[in-house]
């Protein structure tokens, strides 16, 4: 009899969700179950228990923090622990994490800015190469001249794409490290 009552109590207890935020988008969509987020200059990276994604700030209407009593308890307990550590002249672990997280976020913002810049250059070069390639060629002299004009543009495009590829790898590494720090 006691086992049945305990089983019923377990099923009737409200479940604890890790979600701390809901994100409301300007298009009317709602993104629930967001554990945490970090803000960049133009973007916000949001983290779920199963992964993450990045949104542009211009697409977000508001970010609402859920008001779960368990979350508030955890936050206040963490603050008390940090104050105790500080009073004992011990560095709080979250301070080191926060410093590292801020440094990583700053690096990530820099990389994202550089990637955007490279994408603009890449787009400009592709457009220029396509325009030059679409010119009508009437003889071999014009063909050689066109090839000589396009060759440096293609080399520059190749260099930009290679640098962009390296930056994307660096970005992924930083995002992985940020996700690790969020846990």
Descriptive report:
- The chain has 183 residues and is α+β, with helices and mostly antiparallel strands.
- The chain has helices at 2-12, 69-87, 93-133, 140-182, and strands spanning 21-25, 30-34, 36-39, 43-47, 52-56, 60-65.
- The strands form 2 sheets. Strands 2-1-6 form a 3-stranded antiparallel sheet, with no helix packed on it. A 3-stranded antiparallel sheet has the order 3-4-5, with no helix packed on it.
- Strand 4 (43-47) and strand 5 (52-56) form a beta hairpin.
- Helix 3 (93-133) packs antiparallel against helix 4.
- The relative contact order is 0.10.
- Mean pLDDT is 76; it is low at 6-18 and 68-81.
Shape: elongated
Structural class based on helices, strands and sheet pairing: alpha+beta
Total strands: 6
Low-pLDDT runs of 5+ residues are: 6-18, 68-81
Order of helices and strands: HEEEEEEHHH
Beta-strand percent range: 15-25%
Please work out how many helical segments DSSP would assign: 4
- Helical content class: 55-70%
Q: Terminal Cα separation, in Å?
A: 40 Å
Question: What is Rg?
Answer: 26 Å
């Amino acid at each position: 009899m006691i086992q049945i009552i305990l089983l019923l109590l377990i099923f009737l207890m409200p479940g604890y969700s890790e979600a701390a935020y809901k994100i409301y988008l300007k298009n009317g969509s709602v993104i629930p179950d967001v554990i945490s987020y970090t803000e960049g200059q133009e973007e916000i990276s949001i983290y779920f228990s199963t992964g993450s994604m990045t949104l542009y700030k211009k697409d977000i209407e508001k970010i609402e923090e859920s008001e779960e009593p368990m979350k508030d308890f955890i936050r206040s307990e963490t603050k008390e622990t940090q104050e105790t550590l500080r009073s004992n002249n011990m560095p709080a672990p979250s301070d080191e994490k926060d410093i590292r997280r801020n440094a990583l976020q700053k690096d990530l913002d820099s990389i994202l800015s550089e990637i955007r810049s490279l994408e603009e250059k890449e787009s400009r070069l592709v457009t220029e190469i396509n325009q030059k390639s679409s010119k009508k060629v009437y003889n071999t002299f014009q063909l050689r001249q066109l090839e000589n004009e396009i060759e440096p543009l293609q080399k520059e495009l190749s260099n930009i794409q290679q640098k962009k590829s390296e930056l994307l790898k660096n970005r992924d590494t930083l995002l992985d490290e940020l996700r690790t720090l969020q846990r």
